[in-house]
Amino acid sequence: MGDATRSTALVALFIGIAAIAGGYAAAFISGGTPVWAAWLLALGIRVSLAAIMILGAARGRRGIGPLKLPFAFVALVLVIGFGAALALPATEGPLSTLWLGLPARAAIVIYGVGLLPIVVLPIAYALTFETQTLSAEDVERVRALARENQAAIESGATEPMDNQRRG
After folding, report:
1. Cβ atoms of residues 76 and 47 within 8 Å
2. What is the pTM of this model?
3. How far is 82 from 56, CA to CA, in rounded Å?
């Protein structure tokens, strides 16, 4: 049985990708793209990004450990950022107020969705590097599995060793 963190993240990734696909598919509806399609894309992108971050950081049964708070912050920023950009009225024009040199929607996406995660995630990874990266034993275990798989392939086995052990 796999760990719950990865299983949940894989389900979330599937749901996120399905939402993105639904948003894109809505563009083919006759009469124009419905308003909900953009919300499906915003939600699907947020869920997919969070799931991919979790899959990349999950370490066995320990899950993502101390990265829970930074990941939750990034997910919240993405929800608020995409939601705010979509919820703002479409009244921008040449005389609109600029936020740090950009129209409101673009500023929210660039500065909120784009820059905040770029600042938070590297700091979070740096602070948790020792506990979240592979140990020397983990690296050696991966190398040993790679050697076994290569030997199995060279000897003519039809499946790599790891797959044979599972089945």
Report:
1. no
2. 0.71
3. 23
Residue type (1 letter), 85: A
Residue numbers of the domain that contains 11: 4-133
Q: For position 161, what pLDDT does the model report?
A: 54
Predicted confidence at residue 160, as pLDDT, reads 58
Question: What is the rounded distance in angstroms from the CA atom of residue 27 to the CA atom of residue 41?
Answer: 11
Q: How many domains does the chain have?
A: 1
For residue 147, is it within any domain?
no
Q: How far is CA 6 from CA 41, 50, 117, in A?
A: 23, 12, 22
Q: Residue 42 and residue 20: Cα distance in Å, rounded?
A: 8
Q: How many of the other CB atoms lie within 10 Å of CB of 28?
A: 7
SS3 130: helix
Residue at 108 is within a domain: yes
Whether 76 maps to a domain, the answer reads: yes
